[in-house]
Every structure is written in C-alpha cells, then in structure tokens.
Design a protein that fits this description.
CATH class of the largest domain: Mainly Beta
Number of helices: 6
Largest sheet: 7 strands, antiparallel
Oligomer: single chain
Number of domains: 4
Helix content: under 10%
Structural class: mainly beta
Low-confidence stretches: 1-21, 174-179, 183-188, 353-375, 426-432, 510-546
Mean pLDDT: 77
CATH superfamily of the largest domain: Galactose-binding domain-like
CATH architecture of the largest domain: Sandwich
Strand content: 35-45%
C-alpha cells in the first residue's frame, strides 16, 4: 500500500495557508526579520521577573526572559523536545521565540524542581518595536504558536500610548471567541495559527506596540511569524475542523457500525456581514481521487463572529475499504479576499492492523493520568462489537505504568480494570452524559452502563517503571463463566490505580503527534468502535491527542451454531505457506455478511475484517509482519463458516 507522509502533507498545507498575497501588511510580514525571528529576537525587547502566584509582586530576573532558539525547541526536564522544533511555522528554519517555563524552573533536571535559573512563577514579556496603524481602520495580529501548559497563563497585550497603558487579550481559552480565530490546519497543534482583531486598540493609531505575556508555571510557549495586517471587507476563515476518526491509521478490524460525524468552526474576520457562507465536508478516496461521502451546509455569519457548524449527515465506517488512503477535507466555497485559509485536509489510512504498530511512536507519562484520590479513572475509547461479538472472550487487559519513588514497590498499591457495557447503542447516543461530568466512581446502579468485567492486580507483581502491566479479567456478573462480549454492544475500558503512598503513579499515555489528531476534547456526538491494533486491541478516550495507554486482549472462541460448513471451494488462501504476503479469496453462493478473523493457533485475535453484503472478493495480509508459525483464518458468514490453517515462514 502506498504510504503518505503526514509531515509532507502538513508542509504542503502550510505553504498553501501562508500564501497571503491578498493581505495588506501594516507591520512585518513574510520575509521580515522581526516577524520571523530570523537569527534572533532582533528589535523585539524582553523583560523577565520572578513572581508570586498570579504573577503578583514581580522581581526582575534576567533568567526569566523570553529567548530565541534556532530550532524553536525546549529543554525542560518534563517537556524537552531534544533540540527538535516544538512549532510547525513557515519560517521555523531561522528560529523562533521561546519561553521555556519548565527549563527555567528545573534547569533540565527532573530532580531539581524549583532550583533552576528562574523558579516558578515567572513573568515574561516579549515586546514588539513601535509601528504605526495610521489610516488603517482595522488591524489584525496573526501569529503561529505552540504551547504545552500545566498552570501557566497566556496573553496578548496592545498599547497605543508608548506603553503607559496596556490592553490585555486573554488567550487562555482554547476555544473560539469573538474577534479571535484559532486555525489548526496541519498534523497537530504545533502549527496553530491565531488571528486576533486589535482594531479597538490600534486602528488609526500612530504609536502602537504588541507584546506577548506569560505567567509561567510549567511548561512552554513558542511563537513565530508575527504579522500585523489590515482587516479586509470579505474574509471568511475556516478554523479548527473535527477529525471524524481518532486515529490517522485505522485497522480494518475496527470498522464496525461506527458513525463518523463532521464538524468545524468558521469565522468572519472581514468587516462585512455574510449571509451565505457555504461549507463542504468530504471523505475522499485519495487513491482514486473520488468522493466517497460529501455533505454541505450554508449559514449566515456576522462580521467578527465565529460559528461552529455541525453537519447533519454522517457516514458509517464499515463501508470503507481496507488498505486504502482516504482524505478528510473541509472546504469553504465562498470567494473572498484570501481563499488560502478556506481549506483543511488530513489523511486517514485503513490498513490491516499490523501497520499501526509502526506508527505508534512512543509512550510517555509527563502529561499522563495521575490519580490523586482513591477513585480516579483513565478510560479507553468506546468500542463497538459487530454481529459476531459473542465469539470473543476478554482474558486480560494491559496498561502502561510508571511510578515515582517507591510507588511501584508498595504491596497495597493495586491497578483495577473495569469493562463497562453500555445500555444504549445507536448513532446519536450521548456519551457526554457519562464522560462529560465529574466522574468519580464506578456505579453499578446507573442508567448508562453495566460492569461486566473486573480485574485487579498488585503493582508489586513483576511491574517495573515504563512497563506494560497485564491484569487478568473475570466475568463480574458470573465469575464461573468466561468474560464473553455480546454482539452489537458498546464497551468502554476503565483503569483505576488505588495507592496508599504519597508518591504518584502514572498511567502511560500513547502520544503520537503526527498520526493522531482531534480538535475536540468532548465529541459532538457519540463515535463508536475506535479500536486500534498493535499486537492486541487498543483504544483511547478523553483528550485524544494524549490518550491513556490501555489494551484489551481478545481470544476468538466461536459459539457453535447450526450454520453449515462452507464448501472448500468457497475459501482459498495463497500462497500457503507465505513469507511476504498472502491473499484470502472468497466466493459464496449468494451475497452475505460476516467477518474474516485471523487468529493464532490458540485463538488470540490477530486481525478482524468485516464482510458487508458481499458474494466474492479478495483480502491481502502482510505475512512479513507476522512471526513465523501457524495461524487460523476463520471465515464466518450468515450462510456458513470455514476455518483454513495458514502457515507463515521466515
């Protein structure tokens, strides 16, 4: 299968977006040394202070200033980018401005908290040169930035009287606000662009300056490509766009009755109202350049307003093909002064599962889940079983664990796992009722779910820092029976660390900056069945940019039915034995639905692909990515089933 680099796509999108020839630049612009922090901070000035909480009682400290870094990188103990850029800005090659609160507090040493060159809290100002906005009746500040926040606060300030009075614009809200547009248009939020209307303070003024202010309490803020521009009459901007799949690469085995919804923000940053803004959302078969799904909406947006658009139509992911490249595209169809910000595109790959293991870059815990009470939970993403869900047993779950001090050596510290089966299962099931509130306990008596599986294991049982920790599961309803899934049901895995020590225990987060994107922390509607696959089944929920790492290990255990065995001619596997690839050809007497399930000889699920009203077809599998040995290809349909041994040689 042709692989497409998201980094290349991100750079292409960046090149498109930053073509702003239609703009009138009041100060700076592409190629301007001050705008791009080319080789240094240049004519910008910096001030740094050590302060109390909320930046009160500041005391001058040169070590608390903004700095220039050639790579736009950070070096704090808990957020070091190891010399790599933290920002995807057009001019990152010539450096960026960085406020590294993490490093200032600890000097890059995790055991040196509060003993770095400028311990928290810090107060840092980065102030532009003076410029004139005379005869410019509207003024917009545009800049690229990326931040990782613990308890810091971020502001843009504007003065028109030589710094006597500064007007503050709060940038702490990650959402949209009037006269503010955040545009995350590439592979992750390291390419975020802010456009902020400062006309109220700067229009027609002679003596204008802007400054970036941070009240630092961990981690960092990186800024680049700062432009001051004139606001045009007609300018509609496409903002954050909802990515309908939580994974860049999804295995075909997760394509059940998922519902994928489109949603995006659109802002009117022009001076004129617009009564007919038309937006299209498209799922494109990128290999064939053919739309698979399309929906559109027309709305009215007043000048200065931002509107979230939720499209009415959705698509069902089970209709997508395996081993295909898809593109998610949002497009504004209005002609305006700057059409380069009217497009958003990202790729989505459906593969055979084994490939996802290559994309999962690292595990890290610095933004992880830290339980501070007896009951606090990390959740796996909802997943939905298909018509043959009852053919699967849950034997164990796996979670990534890291601990501080002696937290992993205390016999009273345990990890619990709960498998929750939801009582509702339709495309519009409002899962926010469960996850959106202050969830503090697993409640057996509730309107939303039942606890069907439970497991508990002491942390001292062979666990090491940064290890993958396996917890055996049992049927919580009837312990004498195996924990068997049901067909067409919605499940969620919940992990809980119960600890008696003061030292923290983290549930590792699977962080995949380039291949995992989603710009909503709470889904606009339920999205079901996001199971991702490495050597078992894996999912995530919550902030999907940093999902908790937890795994459900399944065993294939078909329940006997009265369905006849399919004839030998109905299924053929070749070559068999296989070394590189093998194909499964099926040819039934009539169209039917079911699934292909590849397992180890002892029943461990390796791959699952749905069959949706088909009579014949071919599926390809990568033997080169499977260990040598014997496997079983289970072909199950409504008209019969057949199991074919498959041998992989090396």
């Amino acid at each position: 299968m042709k692989r497409i680099s998201t980094m290349i796509i991100a750079l292409l999108l960046m090149a498109i977006y930053t073509n702003m020839d239609a703009q009138v630049y009041i100060w700076g612009g592409p190629g301007d040394k001050n705008s791009e922090f080319d080789g240094g901070l240049n004519d910008w000035t910096t001030e740094g202070f050590t302060a109390d909480a909320n930046c009160a009682n500041p005391v001058a400290n040169d070590n608390a200033k903004w700095e220039w870094d050639a790579n736009g990188a950070t070096k704090g103990a808990f957020s070091s980018s190891r010399g790599k850029p933290n920002i995807m800005s057009p001019s990152i090659a010539n450096g960026a401005a960085v406020f590294d609160s993490d490093y200032k507090d600890n000097g890059g040493n995790g055991n040196n908290t509060g003993k770095g060159p400028a311990p928290t809290h810090q107060l840092g100002y980065l102030t532009s040169p003076v410029f004139s906005c005379k005869d410019h009746h509207s003024v917009v500040v545009r800049f690229n930035h990326h931040r990782l926040n613990f308890y810091s606060d971020f502001y843009l300030e504007v003065t028109n009287d030589g710094g006597v009075t500064w007007n503050t614009i709060d940038l702490n809200d990650d959402g949209f606000a009037v006269n503010r547009i955040t545009h995350t248009f590439s592979a992750n939020d390291a390419a975020t662009v802010e456009m902020i209307d400062i006309s109220k303070y700067a229009a027609d003024k002679d003596n204008v300056q802007i400054r970036f202010k941070i009240c630092g309490n961990y981690y960092y803020w990186v800024i680049d490509d700062v432009y001051v521009m004139e606001q045009v009459e007609d300018n509609i901007v496409l903002g954050d766009c909802f990515y309908p799949s939580t994974q860049y690469a999804r295995p075909g085995m997760s394509l059940s009755n998922d519902t994928a919804f489109f949603s995006c923000y659109v802002a009117n940053v022009g001076t004129a109202n617009n009564d007919s803004v038309n937006v299209t959302a498209i799922l494109l078969d990128f290999d064939n350049r053919t739309p698979v799904f399309s929906t559109e909406k027309t709305v009215a947006i007043a000048s200065g307003d931002t509107l979230r658009i939720d499209f009415d139509d959705y698509f069902i992911t089970k209709d997508l093909a395996v081993d295909k490249n898809y593109a998610i595209i949002y497009r504004l169809n209005n002609a305006d002064a700057n059409t380069t910000d009217n497009f958003y595109g990202q790729f989505m790959v459906i593969n055979d599962g084994a490939e996802y293991q290559k994309l999962n870059k690292e595990l890290r815990a610095n933004t992880g889940y830290r339980p501070n009470a007896a009951e606090s939970y990390a959740f796996g993403l909802p997943f939905q079983t298909g018509d043959a869900g009852q053919d699967y047993l849950v034997k164990s779950v796996e979670v990534g664990i890291v601990g501080a001090g002696n937290a992993l050596a205390e016999p009273d510290n345990v990890v619990e796992a709960y498998l929750l089966e939801f009582n509702e299962n339709d495309p519009y099931f409002n899962i926010e009722n469960f996850f959106g509130g202050d969830f503090s306990s697993i409640d057996i008596e509730n309107d939303f779910y039942s606890v069907v599986g439970y497991g508990v294991k002491p942390l001292t049982d062979g666990v090491e820092n940064w290890s993958l920790f396996t917890i055996p599961m049992e049927n919580d309803v009837d312990p004498d029976q195996p924990l068997r899934l049901e067909s067409n049901k919605l499940y969620v895995l919940a992990m809980n660390v119960v600890q008696t020590t003061s030292d923290n225990i983290w549930v590792l987060f699977s962080l995949n900056n380039l291949e995992m994107h989603n710009f909503e922390n709470i889904f606009p509607k339920a999205q079901l069945s996001y199971i991702t696959y490495t050597d078992t089944w894996r999912g995530a929920f919550g902030n999907v940019n940093t999902p908790p790492f937890c795994t459900i290990e399944l065993e294939h255990d078909p329940i006997a039915t009265k369905q006849p065995e399919l004839p030998e001619s109905a299924v053929n596997v070749s070559p068999n034995p296989a070394t590189d690839k093998f194909v499964v050809e099926y040819n039934f007497k009539q169209a039917t639905s079911g699934e292909l399930v590849l397992t180890t000889n002892d029943g461990k699920v390796i791959n699952r692909r749905p069959l949706n009203n088909v009579q014949s077809g071919v599926e390809t599998y990568r033997a080169s990515e499977m260990p040598a040995g014997q496997y079983l290809m289970n072909v199950k349909t409504k008209i019969g089933s057949r199991t074919v041994p498959v041998i992989v040689q090396k």
